[in-house]
Amino acid sequence: MSSLSSESGILSAHNMQVPLQKEFKCTIRNSPELMKLVEEFYRAYRALAERYDFATNELYHA
């Protein structure tokens, strides 16, 4: 059996997620340009989601 198996707990999704989250938070705080890009992407995503909801609602009631 490999030492990186999921049974050993060495390489599980949770074990990898926590350090990546901490690293991401540090990167975001230290990079205002990246933060602006993430905010802009989020606003564009929300606008697209609202347009999709409106369009599907219109089609449903047509």
UniProtKB/TrEMBL annotation:
InterPro entries: NAB, NET_actin-binding_domain. One of its GO terms (molecular function) is actin binding. Keywords: Coiled coil. Residues 22-53 form the NAB domain. Belongs to the NET family. This is NAB domain-containing protein. It comes from Helianthus annuus.
